[in-house]
Structures are given as C-alpha cells and as structure tokens.
Amino acid sequence: MATMHLSVVTPDGSVFDGEVEMVSVRAESGEMGILPGHVPTVAPLKIDAVRIKYENKVKLLAVSEGFVEVRSDAVNILAESAETPGEIDPKRARIAKERAEERLDRINEEEIDVMRAKLALKRANTRLKVSEGS
Ligand code: ATP
Questions:
Q1: Which of 74, 108, 119, 126 minimizes the number of CB atoms within 10 Å of its CB?
Q2: Does domain 4-83 have CATH number 3.30.70.890?
Q3: Which residues partner with 123 through β-bridges?
Q4: What sections of the sequence does the record tag as coiled-coil (predicted)?
Q5: Ligand 1 geometric centre to CA of 66 (Å)
Q6: Residue of the nearest CA to atom 15 in ligand 1?
Q7: How many distinct helices (H) and strands (E) make up the chain?
Q8: Please, are residues 127 and 100 in contact by the beta-carbon 8 Å criterion?
Q9: Distance 56 CA to ligand 1 centre (A)
Q10: Which fold has domain 88-131?
C-alpha cells in the first residue's frame, strides 16, 4: 500500500514521525481524509481527534489548534498540543471539562471569556474521546 511521511510536532517536541497510509483531520473547512498524492495545501485545524492509519493499525491523537501542511509525499501537523490515548490523564480532562461547563453556565452572571471557555471545553471533550478510543 502507498505510504507518505507524517510528522506531528508540538512545542514540547515530536509526537509522531513515520510512514502512514492515511491521515484524517478536521480542518476549519471540514473533514479531510489525506491519502498519498493528495493535492498540496495548508489548512488550519480545529480541536479534534486526528486519525492515523498505518501498518494495519489506527492511532488516535487528541490535537488542539494548529495547522496541517499537505505535500505530495508528506503531511506535517503543527499543533499547540497533541496527545496519544496513553498520554491523556482522563481525570484532568474531566476536571477541565467541568470547569469550562461551569464557566459557560455563568455567562449571564459575570464577565466570562466565552470563546476561551468553549475552546477549553472542546479540548477536554477531545481528550476524553481519544482516551476512550473513539
Ligand atoms: P488544563 O486546564 O487541564 O491544563 P488545557 O486544555 O488548558 O487543560 P492545554 O493548554 O491544552 O491544557 O495543554 C497544556 C499542556 O498540558 C499540553 O502539553 C498538553 O498536552 C497537556 N495536557 C492538557 N490536558 C491534559 C490531559 N488531560 N492529559 C495529559 N496532558 C494534558
């Protein structure tokens, strides 16, 4: 099966570096399934799971905001954070989710940075989804 090189990098370093068969990401413009030979492009990513197919396995990463760069034989993802299921602390993600939900519940009572709370909630939900393997 044809492969392409995938690199996923965050400020903490490399999270994935290897040959893959397919990468699925959620770009701002919608879901992108990237196969070898995909048209070159650069797209901003939404906070979501990235699905990587390689060696008959599917690996999930919880990825927060970043960019995907698609070249003819390589895909590069640069993100604020990216975690494998095993790296995710579900308890911490649940606490972050509750904190964000409480903030969003208080929108009318005090000055809340709604966008910030919504993004925190999305990061927490993505981490919980990836840690549960879905
Ligand atoms: P929290 O409020 O729990 O810090 P957050 O969404 O604000 O969550 P980020 O700013 O996205 O956290 O991430 C900061 C760093 O902590 C990154 O390196 C990220 O990989 C790591 N991180 C955040 N949440 C978790 C988690 N639940 N499990 C493991 N690592 C996490």
A1: 108
A2: no
A3: none
A4: 97-127
A5: 15
A6: 81
A7: 2, 10
A8: no
A9: 29
A10: 1.20.5
